[in-house]
Amino acid sequence: MTYPIQKTDAEWLDTLRAKGAEPVAYQVTRHAATERPFTGRYEQHWADGSYHCICCGAKLFDADTKFDAGCGWPSFHQAIPGAITEIVDHSHHMVRTETVCSQCGAHLGHVFEDGPQPTGLRYCMNSASLQFQEPEA
Ligand SMILES: [Zn+2]
Questions:
Q1: Per-residue pLDDT tens digits for 46-59
Q2: 115 CA to centre of ligand 1 in angstroms
C-alpha cells in the first residue's frame, strides 16, 4: 500500500524528534509497536480540541469523540471521515483491524466493534501516534 506522504525511516526519525514525539513514537508509528497501557500522555487527557497524526499532522479525531474505555489507551468512537485506513491484521494469532493514517501510513492502533453508540466503534489508539491541538480560536 502506498500513501500520499512518503519518507524514509531516517526522515521519519528526524520529523518525530523535531516534534518532540514520545520516544516510542517511531517504533509505534512506523513498525506497528504498541505502547504499554496507561503510559501514554493522552490516555487521561480530556481537553477540548483535536487529535492529529504525530507523523504528518493530518487531523484524525475530534476531542468530543474521545471516551474512557478503561483499557489504558486513548479511545475514540468516531474518526474524521477518510482520515484513517483500515487493514486486516493477522498478527499475534488474532484477526484484528489495524488503523493507519490515510496520508502517511502511520500505525495508529486498532479499531474494535465494542464501542459506545451511535457508532459502536472503539478506536483504540497509541498516545505516541497522536498530537493534540487546542481548538482554533
Ligand atoms: Zn499521518
A1: 999 999 999 999 99
A2: 24
